[in-house]
Each structure stands twice: as C-alpha cells, then as structure tokens.
Amino acid sequence: MSQVFIDNIQKHIHLNEDEIKVVLSVMKPKKLKKKQFFMTEGDVCQNTAFVLSGCLRSYFIDSNGFEHNLQFAIEDWWMADMMSFTTQKPGRLNIEALEDSEMLTLSRHDQLALFERCPKFEKYFRIITENGIISTQNRLLDNLSLPAMERYQNFSKKYPMLLQRLPQIQIAAYLGMTPEFLSKIRHQMSKQA
Are 95 and 38 in contact (CB under 8 A)? Predict the structure, then answer.
C-alpha cells in the first residue's frame, strides 16, 4: 500500500532508497470506518493524511446548521485542516470518512523534522500545496462567477471519478446548492443530451 504513496511523491520529486526509508519511517497507518471522524471542529489537526483507499470529506457547518463541503480526498490525495495543522491551533473543519478508508498520516512535528532530514520532501510539500491553492482558487472563482449548471458541469469534467462514489447530497454541499436543485440540474442535462 505504501507504494501508492511513494509513486505519488515520485511524480513530483525523485527520492533515493535511503530518503524513501526516512520518509516511510515517520508515516503512520490509520484506518477509519465510514462516518468516523479524522478530526472535528475545535480540535487541533495533529496530522495530515494521505489516502490509500476510501474517501474523506472536509466540511464546516454554518450558523444556520447547513453543511458546506470544502474538499474530498480519495486514493492518492491528501487531506487536512491546513490552517490548524500549520498553526497547531483549533480548527474550524470536520473531516469525516465517507467510505471505509485507509491512510498514512504525518504529524506536524514529524513533517518539520522531515523537512530538515530530507529537504527534497519540503519541495514535494510546496508543490502539492501550490497545486491545492490553485485548485481552491479556481473553485472560488467558479463559485463567484458561474451559474449552478456550469459549476456542476465543471465538477463533472474535473472529478468524474467522484460522481460515481459520492451521494448527491455531498456533491450539492460542495457546489453550494440544495440536493433538490442539483437534481433539477441533472434532469435538465439529461434532457439536453
């Protein structure tokens, strides 16, 4: 299973055998059952998680009690409350398993030590963090400027693998609409096809 993790790293940087051993020595396996939490709002995010199998979501609950999904993580993706993980202050997000999930976790302490022992790993985290910022920025721009149907079409094109795995209610909460409205959009699209 750790080969998936190593393959992900090697897509961005090259590690030799000794560096791979150093990186793997600080990664801790973790399993979550469906509906189990990796962290809840108010917790300090102690670890970031690399998903080996399953699916996680991060979300917050607004003052009206509505859930808003910020991110999904399936195999080969990372998940954390980055504000809390980086600052080691209480977070605002909940991270929940939508499926039984297996992951490798990395503590903030071990991450910082790894940056010192294996500087290439700091470059790896810079690359994946930059990619995450770009993705978040594009999503924000879409949410501010596109009608609901185009947001759904963009989601469908960018994440076709999630359409099969996520319940409609989760996709709607990610796109900022009700499940009923998303159902209408999907119905309209099927009539146009």
Answer: yes
